[in-house]
Amino acid sequence: MKTDQHKQEDVQDYQAILESIEEAVQPCFGKGRVANYIPALGQVSPNKFGMTVRTARGECFSVGDANEPFSIQSISKLFVLQLVMSQLGDVVWERVGKEPSGDRFNSLMKLELEHGVPRNPFINAGALATLDLLMSLSGDTRERILNYMRYLGLNKTISSNATVVNSELEHAHINRAMIHLMKTYGCIDSDPEELIATYCYQCALEMSCMDLATAGLPLAMDGYSPLHGDTVLSGKQNKRINAVMLTCGMYDSVGSFAYRVGLPAKSGVGGGILAVVPGELSVAVWSPELDKSGNSYVGTAALEMFTSMTHASIF
Ligand code: GLU
Question: Where are the domains of the chain?
Answer without folding.
Answer: 4-71+205-310, 75-203
